Amino acid sequence: MKVKVLACASPGSSAIPTDLEGVDYVEDLCRKPGDLTAMIGGADRVVMLVHPHELALADVQQSVRDADIDPLGVQFISAESVAGDAQRARTIVAGSAARAAASSDSRPEHSRATFGGQRSRREVLKLPKPYYEAVPLIHADSCAAADGCRACVGECPETAYRWAAGKIQFDRDACVTCGRCITACPTGAIESPAVSDRALVAQIESLVTATLPHAISVAFVCRQRGLSVSAPGWAEIEVPCSGMVPATWPIAALLMGVAGAAVVPCSSAGCDLGNDDKVAHTVALAASLLEAAGVDPSLVGSSPGSAASELGQREMQDPFGTHGPTEVVMALQAISNTDHPIAVSGSMAFRGVVDIDLDACTLCLTCAETCPSGALSHASSEGRVAVSFDAALCTGCIQCVPACPEVERGAISVERRIDAALLAAGRQTIAEAATVQCEYCGRPIASSAMLGRISELLGDEHDAAMSYLARRCMECRGAS
Amino acid sequence: MTQAAELARLRQGLYRFFGGALAPPEQVRLEQLRESVELLESMDLVGFAFYREWRPFAAVLESGATVANLAPEYVRLFASGTKGVLCPPIESFYRSNGRREAIAEIVTEIQDDYRALGLTTTTDSEAPDHATTQLEIMSTLAARESAAWEMQLLKEAESVLEAEDRFSSRHLALWIPHLRARVHSAGPNDFYAAYVDALHAFVIHDKDIIAGLRRWSGVGA
């Protein structure tokens, strides 16, 4: 994968260091990217050091496209974020190049054309070139909407998602490209070329292996608001929105070897998505997890700090992906300085623990059939039926609770809790009962618990009917 | 001509081009399509995201697609191959889920939509739900839009944009992705695989362009 790095040598610009090796400096690149196509010809990806406020994005994207390179794969680095120290700038550029090389190509559904904001009636006729933003793509084959999952609907700060008749309808126009749906989706069905596990891993790995006098720290910052982190020793990890960052991302970065990690809120930069509270909760949860592992909680914050981690570098498969939360907690557990498992409860906890009251549960299996992430599952074997639970897969969506027909009797409940012991335990049977077999065909009729419940509801006067129900299956009763 | 009118004119041409490329292959038509590629690309096509899927199709077209090698593929995929029509380029096939009674409902719905636009299909044209018919409808609407922009009839232009948005959302954008998937699963064929990739990218993109134009002009804001 060949990555070309270009820097804008705008007249009067002093922010971008002028002696970075492997970087081609282009006069007024941001405003007049006329020869860009020829300069990047033969490359697979592009990194550009630019002055964001001067960037002629539509023209840049056109030139990149003309060179047969995916415009949505271009990594932009703002001049402000590399100002000053050349060694730090080199590290940041190398990190972005690694991220660019690891990013996947966009598909037509990812590109959304925009002409800009509303104009006066006269100006409407003078249409500018469109520029393109990356919007998420929902993969219907892995979406759990048919099971009732609405995680994206609940997470979207606008009204881009709608659930109807077991399908998710996505309004591309209403999407604000914040990416919160991506990290909220329990099945990994939503993705965007703007951010991926592979690309983030590549970027952070590059940053931590750089030769610097001190270990580097990272700050997850909103791409859309053009915030820059220029503190010495810190590098930006651009994400579509700081509100999409789960608590495990800064921890994952720490476990990969960065010295400190921050998630930067963006309301001060004019964002009206109301993410500051969310970011504060994310940082607090990350700190709680670190504390539960006996690690200095001040290693994560909402702005560049001074604490430095010595956690070393841990190998992880998918730290920023769908299974990342569990993997990161287990990796943190592995280096825990305490003699008890990590356990954190609260409304922001990204894992749930399902509890079934065996006195109320009828083993109807609706909870397992409804679970979008596969945390609840059911199995039947000779004469028995069981519900099992894997805490590592539970996202605490609580979809199983309203689906339960015995919810009023408290048959099922979910506590939002991250519990390393349960995460490590794997799949456990949490409810089990014998099944009653059909006298005629031998197939199971229902669980004994369910027949008991039906009997209870019908009362003594329907003994004969109950006896009949308990002897014949639906088919042998001619009911199907 | 204003930029808004030029864009509508370009889109009119693109819809017509894509419709023409899905008609049964004929030598004259292939030559017209090749000439159209040159003309359309001269209108700054590279500025649009679907260019990345357009260019491979244009390259296949330019690299000597002939009636002799396209005709068997066309028949196999879209007409009456030995295994039946593998990839019918008609909307009702993809939306009816195999229910015969649904086909009539869908076609009736489409014809109602045509009538609402003041249009009707003639008996000698393709079926009302055929891709070429629907592409021609969008081409016609884009022509109306272009004329409205040119005469600075902003209300009229906005009204046509709304009609385009509605038609694309209810029809082409709904089923062209399925046509694309089906052509790709129907075995290797360079020309039509590249064609459906380009058509799919264009339809998705154009729906966005329409929405973007509506936001720009203030209607969809």
Quick structural overview:
Chain A is built from 14 helices and 21 strands. With 480 residues, chain A is α/β, with parallel strands linked by helices.
Q: How many strand segments of chain A? A: 21
Sheet-strand content of chain A, in percent, reads: 15-25%
Number of domain modules of chain A: 5
CATH topology of chain B: TorD-like
Low-confidence stretches of chain A: none
Q: Roughly how many Å is the radius of gyration of chain B?
A: 17 Å
Helical percent range of chain A?
A: 25-40%
Q: Biggest sheet of chain B, in brief?
A: none
- Please give the count of helices of chain A: 14
Mean pLDDT of chain B: 91
CATH class of chain B: Mainly Alpha
Oligomer: heterodimer
- Write down the Rg of chain A: 27 Å
- The N- to C-terminal Cα distance of chain A equals 59 Å
The gross shape of chain A turns out to be elongated
Q: What portion of residues of chain B belong to β-strands? A: under 5%
Low-confidence stretches of chain B: none
**What's the helix count of chain B?**
10
Fold and architecture overview:
The complex is a heterodimer of chains A (480) and B (221). Chain A has 480 residues and is an alpha/beta fold. Chain A contains 14 helices and 21 strands. Chain A folds into 5 domains: 1-103; 133-194, Alpha-Beta Plaits; 199-307 and 322-339, no CATH class; 352-431, Alpha-Beta Plaits; 435-469, no CATH class. In chain A, helix 3 (86-102) runs antiparallel to helix 6 and helix 7 crosses helix 9. Chain A is elongated and about 95 Å long. Chain B has 221 residues and is mostly helical. Chain B has 10 helices and no strands. Chain B is globular, with a radius of gyration of 17 Å. Chains A and B meet through helix 2 and strand 5 of A and helix 1, helix 3 and helix 10 of B.
